[in-house]
Amino acid sequence: MAPSSETTSLVHNSKEDEDNMKRLKAYQPWAFFVTFGGYFMAHFSRKCYSTVKRQLQDEAGYSPIILSEMDTVFMGTYAAGNIISGKLGDTFNPTTVLAIGLFGSGTCLFLINISLWFDFLSLSLALGNFFIIAVYFLFGFFQSTGGPVGTAVMGNWFCDKKSIENRGLIFGLWTCHQYCGDVTAALCTAVVLGSGMNYTWALFIPALTNIGWAFLTLKLVADPADVGIITPEVKIRMEKLKAKQLESGSSAVDEGPAPISYSAALRIPMVAQYAFAFGFFKLTNYVLFFWLPYFLGKHFDPVTANLIASLYSVGMMPGGIIVGVVSDIFGGRRASVIGTFMGALFIFLFIFSKKSEELGAPALLSMLFLMGILVGGPNNIITSAVAADLASHPSVRGNNKSLGTVTGLINGCGSITASIGLLAVGPLQDKFGWSSVWLFLMGCTFTGTALMGSKIKEELFPKAETYSEVEANLTV
After folding, report:
1. DSSP secondary structure, 73-118, as one string
2. Taking the model in full, what pTM does it have?
3. Tens of pLDDT along 10-31?
4. What sign results for the dihedral spanned by CA atoms 306, 312, 314, 317?
């Protein structure tokens, strides 16, 4: 029998194994809930800024250029932060890293509120602009912890056979956290503005909730091994340690698996390709994420604009679940499903490039909901189930200290592309109108899909595996 690995189930051949399985399954819902809530809070705090972007321009006095630079600065530090946070989560206690991110995010929003309450722009234009950009610079770093580190914790706990077979569904459900946060932010802002409260409350409320969830996150157990649950990864490590002790006659101790290096992570097949392709998909998502309320605010009042924009985020939730379930059914052929979704999105963007200024509320509601499904599915799955698939490759199998780094690289490299691309949105819509922005997104969608062409071809026309290749995939 082939040795166990992190992609095989716990072995039910003893009472101890059964107890380990029961304890593992019992804690999974709590791990799901806390990590889900952590990333929910991250997006709640992140989205609230874009929902009051019109107020930041009209009431606070920030220019569209400064708002665009805030987007770019955020994406730049968020990109670097993802790469760093993934490695930190694989090296140190992941729950501590997650909690620091939530504490920091709440603090940054509180500082932005201070600048608005005391009207830093009236004191000095340079001071006001510098302060809000500097705070948003730090905000990007703190926000970056949720994705790679949360995914790693999920991978640690959902390692049994049934969880692996349903990885697309589980992670598809789990990645609804970000869109639940987006929708909550839009609804929170709608309530704040609709009730006549000052718009700064839409920033202050998520600041408080982020700090509160950070305390809860500190109590989360990051790895089953930390509470004595023996998983396949632990068994492999113990077997290797025992073999080392017998071979050398030494009393070597188990120091745990060493975190994977960046270079080793990039050598895993398809990690680099997914990172580049994801950049263009993420750019499409973030242009809509940051700019939809602003675009809709040209045609509707602020409350209506935010409610319509929230339909995009609502659509993103079932998108991840659909892609995950369908790709599970077809044996993990996730690239092919992603390519199909992107092809449909291309058509919708073309319609927007021609008719976006003429569409009424009913048409916008339905189209944005469908576009949310088409964008959300690929974005959800690439940074969760696909990353988990890649981290389970035979070259790193048995090492649960790779998932955070792999996820961080994909998300971080994708965010670098998105941060650069966001620079074009402000000038494009300023000089050529919104039709040019939609054409720009069509180009991003096509490029990202084309970068995945080789993987899609491989999935649609797979090569027959030899017996030796099958054996290699079954062993560590």
Report:
1. HHHHHHHHHHHHHHHHHHHS-HHHHHHHHHHHHHHHHHHHHHHHHT
2. 0.78
3. 444 578 878 888 999 999 999 9
4. negative
